[in-house]
Each structure stands twice: as C-alpha cells, then as structure tokens.
Amino acid sequence: MTPVLVTGGAGYIGSHACKALARAGYQPITFDNLLTGWRDAVKFGPFEEGDLADRARLDEVFAKHKPVAVLHFAALSQVGESMSDPGLYWRHNVLGSLNLIEAAVAAGCKNFVFSSTCATYGDQDGVVLDEDSAQRPINAYGGSKRAIEDMLTDFGTAYGLKSVIFRYFNVAGADPDGEVGEFHQPETHLIPLMLDAIDGKRDALTVYGTDYDTPDGTCIRDYVHVMDLVEAHVLGLKWLQDGKDSEVFNLGTGTGFSVREVIDRSAEVTNRAVPVTEGDRRPGDCVKLVSGSEKAKSLLGWEPDRSVMSQMIKDAWRWHQNGGYDR
Ligand SMILES: NC(=O)c1ccc[n+]([C@@H]2O[C@H](COP(=O)([O-])OP(=O)(O)OC[C@H]3O[C@@H](n4cnc5c(N)ncnc54)[C@H](O)[C@@H]3O)[C@@H](O)[C@H]2O)c1
Ligand SMILES: O=c1ccn([C@@H]2O[C@H](COP(=O)(O)OP(=O)(O)O[C@H]3O[C@H](CO)[C@H](O)[C@H](O)[C@H]3O)[C@@H](O)[C@H]2O)c(=O)[nH]1
Known about the structure:
Layout: E1 2-7, H1 12-23, E2 26-32, E3 47-49, H2 55-65, E4 69-72, H3 79-84, H4 86-106, E5 111-117, H5 140-159, E6 162-168, E7 170-172, H6 190-198, E8 205-208, E9 220-221, E10 223-225, H7 226-241, E11 247-251, E12 257-258, H8 259-270, E13 276-279, E14 288-289, H9 294-300, H10 309-322
Parallel strand pairs: 1-2, 1-4, 2-3, 4-5, 5-6, 6-11, 7-10, 8-13, 9-14
Antiparallel strand pairs: 9-12
Helix pairs in contact: 1-7, 2-4, 4-5, 6-8, 6-10, 8-10
The structure holds nicotinamide-adenine-dinucleotide (NAD) and galactose-uridine-5'-diphosphate.
C-alpha cells in the first residue's frame, strides 16, 4: 500500500479521509497531537503521536514511513477563538504548517494536499465565490489559512513542491457506517450543537444573529457532506501523483442554507422540536458563504452525491445517537 502522511488524522475530517484513503489502496499514517482529536478515531492505519511544532519528530516520521504525499488537516479552526486570540492562530497554524512543509521538502516528499477554507474569502456582498474570487479574510483563522496557501505557492516556486489546496465550505454529516464521526469537545458547529439541543444534552441552540441582511435574518452557509469532501481528497492526491500542476479547488455545493433553514430541516429529519433561543451575532461570522464549485467537478471529476441537507443531518443524527469516542 502506498504510504501517505495525514496530519490531523485523529480529527473529524482527517479520520474520514483516512477511511477513504485506505479504501482507495493507500496506507494513511496519522500524525496528530490529540489536541482536538481522538486516539479511537485512528482506525485505518498507523498512529504517530506528535506536534507540528516538533520538527525533529516530523523528520523522524518522514524517515520511518517515506510517505509519497502529505494531506494536511491539522489546525485550530474556531472562528470565534481566532478573533479573541489571534496570536494563537498565527503561531499554531502558520508556524506548524511551515515546519511541516519544510520537513516534507527536506524528505523529498513533494505532493501536498492542504485543508483551506472559504473563510479566506471573507464577506463579499453575497456573491457566489469561485476560486478566482479575491481573498479578504475577516478573522485570524481565515488569515492564517491564506498565509499557508501563500507559503505553498512560494515553496512550489523554490523547490517544486506540488500542492492541491481545497477551500472547504461548511463540512457536515458523518460516516454512514458509524465508524467515525464529528466529535468536538467543546463543540462549536451548528449541526452537532443543534442535535445536542434536540436530544436534551443542552438547553437550546442559540441562533447567532437574526438581523443579518438575508431573507430570514440569519447567516447563510454552503454545507458539504464529509464523505463527499474526503473523496475529493483522494482525487486530489491522484491528480498530484499523475504529475499535474498545483491547483486550488473550492469544495461546496453552490447552494446556501440559512441557520433557520438548517433548524427547520433538522426538525423534519429527526421528527423532534429544536429548542432555540436568539442571541447576538458571533464576532468574525461572515453573512453569506456560498461556493462556486464547478472546477472540482470538471477537473477532478468530483461528484458530491451525498451533500443533500437532509442526508447530512440524517448521518450526523445517527452518529450522534450511537457514536462518540473515548480518548
Ligand atoms: N469542519 C469544517 O467545517 C471545516 C471547514 C473548513 C476548513 N476546515 C479545516 O479542515 C481541517 C480539519 O478540521 P476538523 O473539523 O476535522 O478539525 P478537528 O479539530 O476535528 O481536527 C484537527 C486535528 O488536528 C490535530 N492537531 C491540531 N493541531 C495539531 C498540531 N499542532 N500537531 C498535530 N496535530 C494537531 C487535532 O488533534 C485534531 O485531531 C482543519 O484544517 C480546518 O481548518 C474545516
Ligand atoms: O451555536 C451556534 C453555532 C453556529 N451558528 C451559526 O451557524 C452558522 C455555521 O456556524 P459553524 O460554527 O457551524 O461554522 P462556521 O461557518 O463558523 O465555520 C466553518 O466554516 C468556517 C469558514 O467560515 C471555517 O472553515 C470553520 O472551520 C468551519 O467550521 C454560522 O452562521 C453561525 O453563526 C449558530 O447560530 N449557533
């Protein structure tokens, strides 16, 4: 099996990626410090505990496994936290990624797949965002991710590092087999918080802002199923292995859902009421983020067939009721 290094493989998206990679005939080697991830989520290949800040440990892992590519998911990724503690995000995400990129180049591993985000676009007056849209992040999380994108471009020019950069929109859902799923502690994402409220694990879901300039006053996002998202990564990896050029791809569906629409759909899918309270806007939130994602479909042949809102909620609900990890 072809070894690939997966940073953040113990986290939500990384663990699903490891499953997809193993299915596609790769050996996913998880490199993770378990800061927000789970040892029990590492099920599809070897585990190497380590921190991106530790260059010697990275060198050791590259030398041991000789991966042909890196898939880099490890990061801090909470918009609100990045507003209140920007230094943490710049240090952790940017310096950690610099260490990783330098270690990859030093080890002669020249294929790199990177988890970027629609947060790099910032607020752009409700336009559909495609890969050529300007990047004007309004929070330190998005700023840190844009900086890493720039770093990959510079290392490409200097050392021939080839990269596929994926700008994810909002990732949701879980592995339908229930082997892995979304489990953050604390949780900050809309759908799992809503399922907690439905289930009585929290009193209510707080809607962050009801006075936005949108049809129902709540923010709009483009939700993509985690299983579809990780399939794009397998395609991105093959793209690089085929010797193709560095590329940037959005991963979303092109359809926006407001917070209220997601709440209504969840009530339908679970057949339960969603306890809701209305709260203030959350600092750093964009009004509307919707993807132009034709490029991934046309160049990579990506087919996001599970990214239907009711399916994402259904899969998340199943995991919510039966899943979870012990460390
Ligand atoms: N969830 C989303 O909707 C979304 C949207 C856009 C982009 N992303 C990006 O996707 C990636 C994965 O997100 P996720 O939701 O799976 O997050 P997650 O928190 O579940 O997973 C991140 C993993 O990285 C590990 N990690 C963090 N810092 C590390 C370090 N310094 N060294 C080693 N391991 C470290 C954590 O322990 C965790 O297992 C992130 O880069 C995030 O920015 C996520
Ligand atoms: O309790 C909550 C949680 C969220 N929301 C709202 O629901 C929407 C989605 O919020 P999430 O926290 O689920 O997702 P974000 O859009 O903030 O963040 C996601 O997209 C970002 C890009 O904007 C980053 O990439 C990040 O990693 C990823 O989780 C936002 O309008 C948010 O204000 C609420 O109303 N109440």
